[in-house]
Design goal:
Number of helices: 19
Strand content: under 5%
Largest sheet: none
Order of helices and strands: HHHHHHHHHHHHHHHHHHH
Distance between the termini: 16 Å
Length: about 500
């Protein structure tokens, strides 16, 4: 059930009607049923997987809370909960990848194809809710949150449908108290509902007007068979558009999720904060997929020692985190390579930072020109890395990089050849206008201006006008139909 489908719209309206009109005491049960139905719409068989992860972490939390004085037993319980969740993740997401890798190694050694690979369908959103499940168990073990005694409320925490299949990865300390106090939510708060609707509309705008339109050009140029036909600046255009596509696709989903939760009175964590305005790789990861970055920081980087055990150990820890982050994003060596690239860039920044501070001076770093240049350089480095993410293999990545850096053909910007990549001139103009609006919104975030709050401060007629205009824009310019089929959200596959 895609967020940008009629099926979801009907589901969401029915869910809201039940949530608004049912007695307060059964609201969480209604949302739990709705969330399980939402997940079952993908594949009903995998409800068992979601339920298993829920049961494991719930029981772990109960016993971790109960056996406060039995530290050894608590460690075993935590280890077992993490092991079981990771086992599910490794089997469904990485078994085929590891088997194929071993198969290729045996083939190179002349042993032939000795492995029969099962056909394993990747469960939707498995990486998200298993990470949320493990994070809860660790938090209860550390004593930062109390164990949830109500199983059904905990099941809702893990399956809450807006953020179930692509995050943000919520923390128990943020979401569980909201679920416990659900009876106190004023469901008829009109300004809150309007704000949630505005946030959802912007998410649909990012997805259906920008991301799905950019995907047409990106898919054409990055095609694993015909990509060799596109050179130089054409490849750069596609690479930059993929940077925009994946941002608008993933952030668009997140805004829809945050907006849908806001309509019901829940606040989900902000997952993006104008990441392409970052001035360094470190800052980029402080602004991109924030919930995942914080998860790796709190549950992997810090336990590994963080920066407390010397610079070399810190660099090793950084690289471990980024390699595993790459593997989290996909079962393929090009994803690991992508993570390794960001790890290397992050380490290089850390290594060069003292020298830059010493020899360049604060006056130089704080100038507008240098801040602007750093943003451009960071965006280009991130875009180069996204090529590895989008490519089907490491070999294709190097071929694309060779084309981008080895061919100079600026005339493609003026000879209309870019209009032969799947979008005509009119569609390209719509795309560029959408990107320009998205940049303005990101700049407003950078300047700490919230457009939704600014709109809500206006008279009621203006607020409703904005909502109706937003709906009309999406209906008129959104990507629909046989020519531009609405694409799945990219992060659904992770």
């Amino acid at each position: 059930m895609l967020f940008h489908s009629l099926q979801f719209l009907i589901f969401f309206i029915i869910t809201l009607l039940g949530y608004f009109f049912l007695p307060k005491k059964v609201r969480y049960l209604w949302l739990l049923v709705a969330s399980y139905y939402f997940y079952a719409s993908w594949n009903v068989k995998y409800l068992a997987l979601l339920f298993s992860s829920t049961l494991v972490s719930y029981l772990a939390g109960v016993f971790l809370q109960k056996w406060q004085e039995r530290e050894k037993a608590r460690r075993w319980i935590l280890a077992l909960a993490i092991f079981l969740n990771l086992s599910l993740l490794c089997y469904f997401k990485y078994f085929g990848f590891l088997a194929q890798t071993l198969q290729k190694m045996l083939s190179l050694l002349g042993r032939g194809e000795l492995i029969s690979l099962p056909d394993i369908l990747l469960p939707m959103g498995i990486s998200f809710y298993l990470f949320q499940s493990m994070g809860y168990a660790v938090d209860v073990y550390r004593g930062t949150v109390p164990a949830e005694k109500n199983f059904f409320r905990y099941a809702l925490f893990l399956s809450f449908f807006p953020q179930l299949v692509a995050g943000p990865i919520e923390r128990a300390e943020r979401l569980l108290p909201q679920l416990r106090n659900m009876e106190e939510i004023n469901v008829w708060d009109s300004k809150r509902i309007q704000k949630g609707a505005l946030i959802m509309l912007y998410g649909y705008f990012m997805k259906m007007i920008i991301a799905d339109r950019a995907a047409v050009i990106v898919d054409t140029v990055f095609d694993p068979i015909t990509y060799v036909n596109y050179l130089g600046l054409t490849t750069w255009v596609a690479a930059i558009l993929f940077s925009i596509q994946i941002y608008c696709d993933f952030a668009g989903y997140t805004y829809i999720a945050i907006g849908a939760a806001k309509v019901m009175g829940f606040d989900l964590i902000q997952n993006f904060h104008a990441p392409y305005l970052s001035r360094s790789i470190k800052e980029f990861w402080d602004r991109w997929h924030i919930s995942l970055s914080k998860w790796f920081r709190d549950y992997l980087y810090f336990p590994l020692g963080g920066s407390r055990k010397g610079k070399l150990r810190k660099f090793i820890n950084i690289m471990i985190v980024f390699l595993l982050s790459g593997l989290w994003h996909g079962a393929g060596w090009h994803f690991v390579f992508w993570g390794g690239m960001h790890g290397a860039l992050r380490i290089l920044e850390e290594w060069l930072s003292p020298a830059c501070n010493k020899y360049l001076g604060k006056w130089f770093q704080d100038s507008f020109a240098v801040r602007f240049l750093r943003r451009i350089v960071t965006f280009l480095l991130v875009t180069m890395a996204w090529v590895a993410f989008r490519a089907s293999s490491i070999r294709q990545t190097f071929d694309l990089w060779k084309s981008m850096l080895g061919t100079f053909n600026p005339w493609v910007l003026f000879d209309q050849s870019l209009y032969g990549l799947g979008l005509d001139e009119k569609e390209v103009r719509v795309l560029l206008i959408g990107i320009a609006f998205m940049i303005l919104v990101d700049l407003s975030l950078q300047w700490k201006k919230n457009l939704a709050d600014a709109i809500l401060r206006q008279p009621i007629w203006f607020r409703w006008l904005v909502l109706y205009v937003g709906i009309a824009v999406i209906l008129i310019f959104g990507v629909y139909g046989a020519q531009y089929d609405a694409a799945d959200f990219i992060y659904f596959q992770f």
